[in-house]
From TrEMBL:
This is FMN-binding protein. Residues 1-30 form the signal peptide. It comes from the Bacteria. Keywords: Signal.
Length: 207
């Protein structure tokens, strides 16, 4: 299987040729359905790729064999909806030409069930990956736990990481957790790694 950075460039080439993606994204079904509308989804995508003028969608579908491969690599079972992920390709057309900026994906990691102020705590992680196959930006949406988990001091530790890097979180690791929420800190890091790996599997198909 090709390296992720190579596949990202291939995806960009296919995008510029107009053969890979849908020009008008429909509302996503898996994770993004929770956002309620394309307008909300697009706003979240704009936080991940603020320079993008448009976002194009690519939907994939994994076979049972691919699901087994992904689960073995990640170390946990996929949600049923993760078998059909939605990838959002960020482009900049402000110059009159379509420029590939990267790919965004939303991951909804498993959080221990608990209530906070009458609401179920959940994490919706948006991950942007650049053309080199490295984490470009991570943002959290609809999170009601410790605000420190949503801030740059924690999230920016993931920027620049690739599948060749460790995503372990801990006091003795390169990625330091939010003190109040060490488990959730690891879940966010896991989501970034999952996004990278799902892109590797999906963008590597047919090559």
């Amino acid at each position: 299987m090709r390296h992720l950075s190579t596949m990202m460039r291939l995806a960009a080439g296919a995008l510029l040729g107009g053969t890979l993606l849908l020009a008008e994204p429909a509302p996503a079904e898996a994770h993004l359905a929770n956002f309620g509308s394309w307008e909300i989804t697009r706003g979240y995508l704009q936080e991940i790729f603020p320079d993008a003028t448009d976002f194009l969608r690519r939907r994939d579908s994994y076979t049972d064999a691919e699901v087994a491969q992904i689960e073995a690599e990640l170390g946990f079972e996929l949600y049923p909806e993760d078998r059909n992920p939605e990838f959002y390709i960020a482009v900049d057309e402000s110059s009159g030409k379509r420029k590939f900026l990267g790919v965004a994906l939303f991951i909804d990691p498993r959080v221990e069930s608990r209530l906070l102020e009458g609401n179920v705590v959940r994490i919706e992680v948006g991950i942007g990956v650049d053309a080199r196959g490295r984490v470009k930006r991570v943002r959290l949406f609809d999170y009601r736990g410790a605000r420190a988990l949503t801030r740059a001091e924690f999230l920016d530790q993931l920027v620049g990481l690739s599948l060749n890097d460790s995503f372990e979180v801990g006091p003795g690791e390169a990625i330091k957790p939010v003190e109040e929420e060490p488990i959730e800190s690891q879940l966010v890091a896991n989501a970034a790694r999952e996004a990278l790996y799902l892109m590797k599997v999906s963008l590597g198909q047919g090559g």
